[in-house]
Amino acid sequence: MADPSTYRPAAGTIPTQPGVYRFRDEHSRVVYVGKAINLRSRLSNYFQDLIQLHPRTRQMVQTAASVEWTVVGSEVEALQLEYTWIKKYDPRFNVKYRDDKSYPYLAVTMNEAFPRAFVYRGAQRKGIRYFGPYSHAWAIRETLGLLTRVFPMRTCTQGVFNRHAQLGRPCLLGYIDKCSAPCVNKVTAPEHMDIVRGLISFLAGNTAPVTKRLQQQMHEAAESMDFEKAARLRDDLAAISKVMERQSVVFTDGTDADVIATFGDELEMSIQLFHIRDGRVRGQRGFVVEKPASSTDVDAEAELVTDFLMQFYGDAAEREAEIPREILVSVAPATGPEVEQLLAELREGPVHIRVPQRGEKRELMETVAGNAKEALRQHKLKRQGDLTTRSAALQQLQEALFMDDAPLRIECTDISHIQGTDVVASLVVFEDGLPKKSDYRRYRIKEAAGDGHSNDVASIAEVTRRRFLRHNQDKTAVPDAEEFDGTRFDDEKVEEFTTTGKRFAYPPQLYIVDGGLPQVNAAQEIFDELGINDVMLIGLAKRLEEVWLPGEDEPLILPRNSQALYLLQHIRDEAHRFAITYHRQQRSKRLRVSELDGIPGLGTQRKSELVKHFGSVKKLREAGLSDIEAVKGFGPGLAQKVYNHLHSQGS
Q: Which residue has the higher pLDDT, 505 or 181?
């Protein structure tokens, strides 16, 4: 690892104009490319105290051995040069947008004398038109089988084409009129190209002319008593309609647009892109990338959207793919006008980038954002389900924490409350890198007082004490069914310790608390008090995913792309989810009991109906008498009692 101070340029030598900079390693390989409106301001951020840097940035500046820059005239030129250098050098620390899975496309080889259509996966090349992506290869084959009834273009490989050209007879598709058989000169190259252009136009969304032409030909054939031809055209129309039905209408005005939404956590971000042509969803693509370093989550999303638009549509222009006139995004790019200008130059026409606020486009954006969230969840589940990946994560944890053995059992606790009220805690258990939900625990915190940061520390101490009070006994005792059946700790019943009524079967090798150094030190004090010295204790801070060890002044930084960090994050997120769920249950229960209790004639069922109807007790209190009477099961008398009770409390 290099010391950034050894190659830091003097501040006065760095210009203040817009530009693009490159960090190179000791072998002169470019490891990072970036742009800046003010080069001096941006580059100075890389040479501050390493502890203040984002983990990925810290690793980059320590890998690099030199930095150089090029001054440009405007932000637009900086964007263009940055994209060019990223394509040229493929720097390891720049975000790379790779699909979250390999999608199949319908490809048409426009660079051949007799173009052919086929299913394709992989890197896209010039001279080939791509349509999709589709969810399954069979969907492309079925679609192509329907469309070749109307557009009988070639679909065979070059070897099959040459063989039948030598034989002088077409293949089966040629005999059943699903191929125009250019191999035996049934059509000329220009005639076949017209068929190809018709198919491309239809796939691009121009379906109305094809449907109108087929309908007209069918009626003409029927009027001339050529019923066989009319029946064939009727079947062709049915095939066309079947293809069109599979593409759901999302914009009634026939808009052409790309819709892009992002969703991320502390480490990664998911990008979903829907291609909308003629108001219909024509394709979908997904990407999962490492989250870029930035001061806030919003800034990170804006920077990611900027980079994605430049790289994705820059690549699209190189392979002669379509760039739509309208691009809808969930977060506006960091340099919106400049990106619009560059994309307009690539498209050779205007491009508008905007965040939809209402109507159909806003609804579709919410759908795409939901897909982005689900894609990130599936990405994590796929990593979790891989035995090799889980084994690597546990091995990395063992090495990073200097443990004697891999932590096969890991427990993590998290605190949930709102301004110190309804404080609850969760304890989740992972064995062999997988959640063991039968061992999950939920606690009501009763000893912690106050609110804010100090309350979290006290709560962590309490739940740690309650968890490890019998730790030394658990290591040797045989599990039985009575251990947690009515057990009391310090004359206090433990709340919902387990769903099975059994105690912990094994002690953990690793215990994680959600928080930084104060929380870890509080848990360590409990460990010292109870004489626990065989469990590794760490804390995981949310913002930069720092690992804190008891008594240490500096955190342990795991590589951002390490499987160990992904596993820790997954465990912490699961603890957070479990705590939030329990907290909402307790808060809802308290609200229902405390504010609606004591109303004559109002039982549990009707309380639930009220809360369900209005959404919360607060909204119920704001409702009028007639609104309460509209709830199922509430007459004028009972509604009046509820109304009087709530408003007498308010006064």
A: 181
Rounded CA separation 192/125 (Å): 22
More confident residue, 151 or 476: 151
What are the backbone angles phi and psi of residue 275, rounded to the nearest 5°?
Answer: -90, 115
Supply angle C-alpha 183, 188, 194, rounded to 5: 110
Q: Are 563 and 392 in contact (CB under 8 A)?
A: yes
Residue 590 belongs to what H/E stretch? helix 563-596
Asked whether the beta carbons of 60 and 13 are under 8 A apart, the reply is no
CB 414 within 8 A of CB 572: yes
Would strands 441-444 and 492-493 be described as parallel, antiparallel, or unpaired? unpaired
Task: Retrieve residue 101's tokens.
Answer: 């899975």
Q: Does domain 4-89 correspond to CATH entry 3.10.129.10?
A: no
pLDDT tens, position by position, 509-568:
999 998 888 889 999 999 988 888 888 999 988 766 788 899 888 888 887 778 888 888
Percent of the chain residues topping a pLDDT of 90 = 5
User: Which residues pair with residue 290 across a beta bridge?
Assistant: 268
Categorize the per-residue pLDDT at 410 as very low, low, confident or very high, splitting at 50, 70 and 90: very high
Calculate mean pLDDT across residues 116-144: 75
Cis peptide leading into residue 559 (ω within 30°): no
User: How many other C-beta atoms lie within 10 A of the C-beta of residue 587?
Assistant: 16
Q: What are the start-end ranges of the H helices in 64-135? A: 75-89
What CATH class is the domain 597-650? mainly alpha
Which is it for strands 421-431 and 434-435: parallel, antiparallel or unpaired? antiparallel
Bridge-based pairing state of the strands 536-541 and 510-514: parallel
Which of the 8 DSSP states describes residue 618? H
> Domain 388-586, CATH 3.40.30.10 — does that match?
no
**Residue that the structure tokens 């960091």 belong to:** 334
* Angle CA 407–411–417, to nearest 5: 155
* pTM over 0.90, yes/no: no
Residue whose tokens read 């951020």 = 45
Render pLDDT for 434-468 as a digit per residue (tens, 0 to 9). Answer: 888 888 888 877 754 444 444 778 888 888 888 88
Pairing label, strands 19-24, 66-71: antiparallel
> Is 257-380 a domain of CATH 3.30.420?
yes
The answer to whether residues 423 and 447 touch, using CB atoms and an 8 Å cutoff, is no
Cα–Cα distance between 561 and 98 in angstroms, integer?
15
Q: Is 647 helix (H, G, I), strand (E, B) or coil?
A: helix
- DSSP three-state, residue 281: strand
* Residues 331-339, mean pLDDT to the nearest whole number: 85
When the pLDDT of each residue in the chain is averaged and rounded to a whole number, the result is 78
Ranges of each domain in the chain:
4-89, 96-205, 207-246, 257-380, 388-586, 597-650
